[in-house]
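Example 9 (inverse folding). The structure is encoded as follows.
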């Protein structure tokens, strides 16, 4: 019996799912993160997890994005061969119309991050289309759809290799994880695809991330297959690295490992690994031709009873009277609450500043004595000053750091670690790098009390804004001496974990 899938129903279902995942974490993730919070011993990591959980509840209640990076959309469809799409448009175009409606919904407008002409012009498409659609024809009279919105910070940490058949998968994973840094905003999940061809391994890694977190259940009953044994071994050994939440050192770096495999050539062992971040967003639904599918609202009482508040030992900082001497007094790991006016800017703004300086042109703003925040916020709705405005990955600005510090910039705020070049520049200029929590964008936005564009208005979310902030929480990640919390904290926790395991073995 043929099932007719109406164009309007598919559009509505995709749009609803994308809005849903923009503000609702999957419940399995929230429960696993709640357990990680209870067991975490690292103070900085525990504080970061508390911010993520508090942000999650706020977004669920307010129907606003979990993260300012509302992602590139991936749709995986298993299309029943007895189904017919009632449309004159292609399946890609129908799905993209659902994406367009979701991202342009006035009540919860999502950030459009997709750029066309990726090698050259990189012009924003304004509606977050096109999406990436994978279709598999299967027996049956229903269509099974999985949608995900993947942020650039985690997607950019994807790893791939063509291993030799005799190479160790575990060794490769453990070699890659430290190289990924913390820009993927742990704690999250690792999706791994093994076998097939290069592109098949990548698709499997992405699809595996759609599965429910079940590591606690798996470990409780014990692994029964070689793949399950591999999942547990990778899970335990990655967490033993001590990287922790946001790379700040701690017990929980990942909450689960998902693996899919497929037969491959005798001479090959393709492997792909894709992390899911603290803003993990995906949903699953099935259409049977009876109309659009609307996902059920989760029960807010199931969120962990965690309500982040500033640490009593936090140092309040007045940005409007900040001096180099104050910046040089900060130590790695210090928690600060920023107050006053700060500038923003990220990739496109930094590149334009570089080009203007090369031409001897005057910049639109004065950076001397200021602090810059690497952010591309979501557009505000209602009476919001700014939409969700969490930090972007700071290493993308590393090549511009010396140039910006030479303009008199005192400090920078971003996400995750800085590279060696940036750290050397920070040390040479005796400035500092401060880290905000990735995955807490709505919480951070509440600290922003005023916002105005002061430069490069044509760049949209990549323009230079001036934010007025009140008690914006950050951690000193690199101090004026070049000491990085992301370098020493994981090493400290790795040793603690090692000693605890030795005591358990004794």
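The amino acid assigned to each position is listed next.
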């Amino acid at each position: 019996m043929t099932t007719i899938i109406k164009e309007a129903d598919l559009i509505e279902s995709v749009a609803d799912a994308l809005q849903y995942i923009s503000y609702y974490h999957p419940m399995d993730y929230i429960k696993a993160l709640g357990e990680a919070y209870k067991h975490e011993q690292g103070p900085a990591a525990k504080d970061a997890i508390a911010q993520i959980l508090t942000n999650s509840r706020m977004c669920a209640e307010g129907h606003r994005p979990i993260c300012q990076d509302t992602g590139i959309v991936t749709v995986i469809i298993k299309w029943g061969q007895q189904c017919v799409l009632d449309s004159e448009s292609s399946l890609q175009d129908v799905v993209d119309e659902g994406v367009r409606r979701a991202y342009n919904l006035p009540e919860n407008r999502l950030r459009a991050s997709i750029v066309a002409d990726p090698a050259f012009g990189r012009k924003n498409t304004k509606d977050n289309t096109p999406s990436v659609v994978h279709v598999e024809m299967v027996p049956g009279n229903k269509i099974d759809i999985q949608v995900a919105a993947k942020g650039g910070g985690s997607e950019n940490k994807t790893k791939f290799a063509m291993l030799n058949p005799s190479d160790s998968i575990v060794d490769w994973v453990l070699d890659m994880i430290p190289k990924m840094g913390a820009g993927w905003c742990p704690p999250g999940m690792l999706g791994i695809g093994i076998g097939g061809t290069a592109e098949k391994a990548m698709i499997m890694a992405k699809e595996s991330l759609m599965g429910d977190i079940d590591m606690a259940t798996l470990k409780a009953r014990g692994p029964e297959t070689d793949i399950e044994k591999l999942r547990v071994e990778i899970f335990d050994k990655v967490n033993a690295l001590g990287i922790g939440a946001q790379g700040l050192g701690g017990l929980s770096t990942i909450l689960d490992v998902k693996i899919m495999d497929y037969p491959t050539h005798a001479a090959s062992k393709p492997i792909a690994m894709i992390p899911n971040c603290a803003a993990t967003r995906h949903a699953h639904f099935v259409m049977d031709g009876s109309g659009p599918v609307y996902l059920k609202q989760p029960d807010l009482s199931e969120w962990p009873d965690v309500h982040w508040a500033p640490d009593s030992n936090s140092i309040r900082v007045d940005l409007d009277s900040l001096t180099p001497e104050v910046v040089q007094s900060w130590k790695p790991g210090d928690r600060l609450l920023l107050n006053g006016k700060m500038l923003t800017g990220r990739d496109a703004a930094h590149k334009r500043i570089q080009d203007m300086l090369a031409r001897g042109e005057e910049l639109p703003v004065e950076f001397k004595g200021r602090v810059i925040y690497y952010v591309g916020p979501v557009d505000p709705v209602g009476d919001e000053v700014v939409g969700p405005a969490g930090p972007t990955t700071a290493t993308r600005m590393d090549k511009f750091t010396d140039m910006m510090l030479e303009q008199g910039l005192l400090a920078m705020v971003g996400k995750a670690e800085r590279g060696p070049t940036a750290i050397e520049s920070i040390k040479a200029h005796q400035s500092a790098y401060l880290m905000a929590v990735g995955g807490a964008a709505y919480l951070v936005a509440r600290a922003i009390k005023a916002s105005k564009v002061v430069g490069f208005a044509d760049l949209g979310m990549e323009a230079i804004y001036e934010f007025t902030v009140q008690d914006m929480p950050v951690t000193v990640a690199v101090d004026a001496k070049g000491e990085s919390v992301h370098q020493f904290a994981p090493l400290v926790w790795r040793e603690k974990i090692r000693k605890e395991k030795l005591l358990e073995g004794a």
